[in-house]
Amino acid sequence: SSGINAEYGLTGQDRFYIAAGGGSSHRDMCHIMNVIDDKGFDCTLTDHSADYGMLSLQGPRSRDILEKICDADFSNNAFPFSTHQLVTVAGHQVRAMRLTFVGELGWELHIPSESLVAVYEAVMAAGGEFGIADAGYRAIDALSSEKGYKHWHEDVRPDTTPLEAGMAWLVNPKLKTDVDFLGREALLSQKKNGLKQRLVCLKVKSPVPMVTLEAIYRNDKVCGYVRRTAYGYSVGCNVAWGYVENPAGLTLDWIRSGTYKVECMGELYDAEMTLAAPFDPKNLRVKGDYSEDYFPLSDTTKQSAHL
Fold first, then answer.
1. Cα–Cα dist 28/21, whole Å
2. pLDDT at 86
3. Disulfide-capable partner of 229 in 40, 94, 150, 240 (CB 3.0 to 4.6 Å)?
């Protein structure tokens, strides 16, 4: 199968640190153990979930806050995106990972359980002058939806592939080599034979509450359904993600040439389709660049998306 069985952060060379989603950690562990057994790998997997907690510090002043209470250099050169370091925060050793699920400059702090409260209090105290505030999971849902970040079990699942989810950039480099990985042959076959479905973003201007599973219409015919939705406060509309299907085969022209609507509670609402993220498509904020104000996607930007 070339489906997506898990999503997690992974660091290391001969020893690995795996950060899995809280809602799927047990399933992820079982999946990894099954692969270890099937392949006969000489390795062990230990669950440290009860030993650590995580705080995610996100936003334009996240670097300023950490540099007030940390012994490390958090500049772009010293701490690039998608890297991690062991640092000391307010006297406590913390694994800092430069990652984001909301599209902003930020770090995840993986903290020993006994140090969680002390580190949290130090972060909040240091961030007071910058207007730091707690944010809940619904805020994460809305921001990640605007940025097109994928939720496992919604946007991506075992019955969807990276090519269908618009994540070809993750697998194409390896497909051009002889590197073997789970699902390789199935993906090569899919590239050769074409896609039957593709994840798209639909911006619905109506503020009507949406809860997922709404039908997607292309040119007045049902072509799929919504997998995930949230109201995007930065873009001023509902942001819905769903897969559109065409049994005759998908092309970018077929996807882009349609007129889309979303059905919600028996009513049809106009939707604008895009294959790229509705917010900050240049990924400037992730790099710590806040020099440009947000601007809506232009037709030129939309054309840069690919299957």
1. 9
2. 95
3. 240
